[in-house]
Specification:
2 domains, four-stranded antiparallel β-sheet, 22 helices
Length: 490
């Protein structure tokens, strides 16, 4: 291997590790949403508490565009390297602090306030991180292989989710359920500080992007990146096209295929949390290499066609796939093993368990929270064959994600000039992913809850998909009509 290739490999590795850790920090909150809803919010209404947790999770996404503006401007003024070192420290500190916050039972309303504040800091940090890392790698990579090299950055979001799930599963398996519920859930937040310190040491030795260094040496850096990015009509046009013709749909495909799939299995299908996370980890790992494959393919046949194809397939496939996922877990049509149904009473808690002939099991813990109110927590475990069926469905969902997301970094980098690239690409990316995509699990869960309450549709559990399907379709139309396709990288 030549020195140049070694240097580029180091650059990609160092950038990717840091970005992966930031995604881990950002996603650990969502991965523990069901637990956090009982810790930081009133528990008299479990559904409302979970929706509040999802809303707090989504708040981190909503603030990401502001982080893109703040850190994008700094990145175009002082450089890529130092800016995403700052975002890494901000993210790591906020994540560590979430693990230290006392519960709602201890400090009352201060708990959700502190969590929301730290979640907003996480969103600001991530708003600056991704654009910096993608720009940094793209500006080192040869133009004809930009899709391939930037696609490694694209894998970090999925791998960050995988690691967050793996750390949670490892923590759960190392202690009792009671211990995890008491303090163990804090461990995934606290250990992130070690990852951040390692990444900071790695990034400290990185050099500035050669394109930015050259522009700076020639006095060709922007004096006002925000004004040049959004005050210039032509550049603003490209920003809007990037948002409504690419990143909006890509963000929705991503969060539907990854986060909503998790929420759907956990809260709507009532699948056991460990089994849900196992299915997701396997499906995500199987699908992750496709990011690089589609990124490399975009160098040969263009970015637009691959991204649009992924979005179109997603729109056509979501309802059938999620319907089959629901039916795979659903026990209403399964046969109960004779004599397996049991009811156990312990204080104010009633536990009902059942076994089914196909190897599935059902558990419903009903707790009396007040004389006229009970809380029900259903947990279903499915047999091994059905588990692998769900892994297959998750893999298909991830394959759509890789088509839409694999080429997106190279696509965005090539739309904007070096001197305002960090700012210009970061904003549409983080609005598309942070606002449209990040709100998806909360909006979809709310739509399903309303549909189930109203009882006017045949399959209320699919109603949450109306939101991504509608907006992805709009994005596809805009992208196909208005975004000019390039055969080769710019």
């Amino acid at each position: 291997m030549t020195t140049k290739k070694q240097s580029l490999a180091y650059i990609i590795s160092a950038s990717s590790v840091g970005t992966l850790i930031e995604w881990y920090d950002f996603y650990i909150f969502g991965s523990l949403a069901t637990v956090l809803s009982t810790k930081f919010f009133p528990t008299d209404n479990p559904t409302a508490a979970f929706l509040n947790t999802l809303a707090t999770f989504a708040a981190g996404f909503v603030v990401r565009p502001f982080g893109a503006l703040v850190f994008g401007r700094l990145g175009d003024l002082i450089g890529r390297k130092y800016t995403f070192m700052v975002t890494l420290m901000l993210m790591g500190g906020a994540t560590f602090a979430i693990g230290l916050i006392p519960s709602y039972a201890t400090i009352g309303a201060w708990a959700p306030i502190l969590v929301l504040t730290l979640r907003l800091l996480q969103g600001l940090a991530l708003g600056g991180e991704y654009g910096g890392a993608a720009t940094y790698v793209a500006e080192h990579a040869p133009a004809e292989r930009r899709g391939f090299f930037t696609s490694w950055i694209q894998t970090t979001a999925t791998l960050g989710l995988v690691i967050s799930l793996a750390v949670i599963m490892a923590t759960r398996s190392s202690m009792s359920k009671e211990a995890f519920d008491d303090f163990g859930w804090r461990i995934p937040f606290l250990v992130s500080i070690l990852m951040v310190l390692v990444s900071l040491l790695i990034r400290k030795n990185m050099e500035e992007s050669p394109m930015f260094a050259k522009a700076k040496a020639e006095g060709n850096i922007s004096k006002n990146p925000l004004k040049e990015s959004f005050g210039n009509k032509l550049n603003l046009k490209y920003v809007l096209l990037a948002l409504f013709g690419a990143t909006m749909g890509q963000g929705l495909v991503w969060y539907t295929g990854q986060f909503y799939a998790q929420t759907f299995l956990l809260k709507i299908c009532n699948l056991d949390d460990i089994q849900t996370n196992t299915i997701l980890v396997i499906g995500l790992l199987l699908g992750t290499p496709l990011f690089v494959i589609f990124g490399a393919l975009s160098d040969k046949i263009g970015r637009k066609g691959i991204m649009m194809a992924g979005m179109i397939i997603a729109v056509l496939s979501y309802r059938p796939i999620f319907d089959q996922m629901y039916k795979t877990v659903d026990v209403t049509n399964k046969t109960v093993v004779p004599g397996s149904e049991k009811m156990t009473l312990k204080g104010k808690t009633t536990t009902i368990t059942k076994e089914y002939t196909d190897g599935s099991s059902y558990k419903n813990v009903i707790t009396e929270v007040s004389p006229d109110k009970t809380e029900s927590k259903i947990s279903i475990k499915i047999n091994e064959k059905d588990q692998w069926t769900l892994v297959g469905y998750v893999f298909f969902l991830i394959s759509f994600v890789t088509m839409a997301y694999g080429p997106i970094a190279a696509f965005l980098v090539e739309m904007f000039p070096t001197k305002i690239r960090y700012t210009s690409m970061s904003l549409p990316y983080h609005i598309g992913n942070g606002v449209f995509g990040g709100l998806m699990p909360a909006i979809a869960t709310f739509l399903v809850s309303n549909a189930q309450t109203a009882g006017v549709v045949q399959k209320p559990y699919l109603e949450g998909l109306n939101y991504p399907i509608a907006l992805i379709s709009v994005c596809v139309v805009i992208g196909i009509i208005y975004i000019k396709s390039a055969k080769k990288a710019a």
